[in-house]
Write a structure and sequence with these properties.
Number of helices: 8
Helix content: 25-40%
Largest sheet: 7 strands, mixed
Distance between the termini: 53 Å
CATH topology of the largest domain: Aminopeptidase
Structural class: alpha+beta
Shape: globular
Order of helices and strands: EEHEEEHEHHEEEHEHEHH
Number of domains: 2
C-alpha cells in the first residue's frame, strides 16, 4: 500500500528506498536550502498553481553527456547564420516569466507557478540558477533556464517566440558546458523532441548513483558569461 509523504519545513526528504513512483514527497517549502538539497538527490518540484508542492524524480531520467551532443544538420545551418544575439544570465527573470507564459501545444496552463518563479529568481541571485537568452532586434525571442551543481546542469524549461530560438539557446548551453566543466545535462523527462540532440533515458538508479559520485560537497556559485567565439569553435569541433 502506498502512503504519501508530507514534509514539514525542516523534514528531510525520504530515503531513495522509500520512493514510490515519480512522486517522492509533498509539501515542505521552496527555500534555497531545500531546493539545492533536492537537486543533489535527483528531485525537483513539479506542480500546478493552487496545488501543494509535489517533489518528483522521474524514472527513467533523460540525460545528455555534453560531449555526446548531436547537432541536426538543418539546425547547424541555422546556427552558422548567427541570426540571434546569444547571452547568458542577463535576463533571468524575463526568461522564467516567458517560460511560464508562453503557451505549449501539449500543456494546459503552467507548472512554473508564481512561487516557483520567486524561488528560482532567488536561486539565480545566489548563483545557482542560470539562463541562456536569444535576442533579435533587442527583443528576447527565446531562451532556457536551469540549475547548475558543479558538473551537472538541470534544465528546467525553455521557450521560443521565433522558430529555432530555444534550440539555438540549447546549443549555446551545450557549448558553454563543454568549455566550463559541465559533464551532464539533465533534461528530466525524455521526449522525441530531445532525442534529436542525443538525449537518452537512463534508469533513475543509475542517475542517482552518478550524482552521489560527481556532485561536490562545496558548490561554486557565479554568474555565467558567454564567449560566443569559443562556443562556436567548440561546437564546430564537435560537429566535425
Amino acid at each position: 500500500m502506498r502512503s504519501e509523504v508530507w514534509l514539514q519545513p525542516d523534514d528531510p526528504f525520504p530515503l531513495e528506498k522509500y520512493w514510490q513512483g515519480w512522486v517522492v514527497a509533498y509539501g515542505g517549502d521552496l527555500s534555497p536550502t531545500r531546493l539545492i538539497d533536492a537537486y543533489r538527490k535527483g528531485i525537483f518540484p513539479w506542480y500546478s498553481e493552487g496545488e501543494p508542492i509535489r517533489w518528483c524524480s522521474p524514472d527513467p531520467r533523460a540525460v545528455l553527456p555534453a560531449h555526446l551532443l548531436h547537432i541536426p544538420q538543418r539546425l547547424w545551418r541555422e546556427w552558422k547564420k548567427k541570426t540571434f544575439l546569444i547571452t547568458a544570465d542577463t535576463s533571468f527573470q524575463q526568461v522564467i516569466q516567458a517560460c511560464a507564459k508562453t503557451p505549449r501545444k501539449w500543456e494546459d496552463g503552467t507548472w512554473i507557478t508564481s512561487d516557483i518563479q520567486e524561488s528560482y529568481i532567488r536561486l539565480h541571485e545566489l548563483g545557482y540558477a542560470h539562463s541562456v537568452e536569444c535576442w533579435k532586434d533587442n527583443t528576447l525571442v527565446g531562451g532556457l533556464y536551469g540549475i547548475q551543481l558543479g558538473p551537472l546542469f538541470v534544465g528546467e524549461s525553455m521557450f521560443y517566440h521565433i522558430s529555432n530560438a530555444s534550440k539555438i539557446a540549447f546549443l549555446a548551453l551545450c557549448g558553454f558546458s563543454l568549455l566550463n566543466g559541465i559533464k551532464l545535462i539533465d533534461c528530466q523527462v525524455f521526449s522525441e523532441h530531445l532525442e534529436q540532440f542525443g538525449v537518452f533515458p537512463v534508469p533513475r538508479k543509475k542517475y542517482l548513483s552518478w550524482l552521489k559520485v560527481n556532485i561536490p560537497e562545496h558548490l561554486s556559485t557565479n554568474y555565467w558569461s558567454l564567449d560566443m567565439g569559443k562556443v562556436h569553435k567548440v561546437l564546430s569541433n564537435l560537429k566535425k
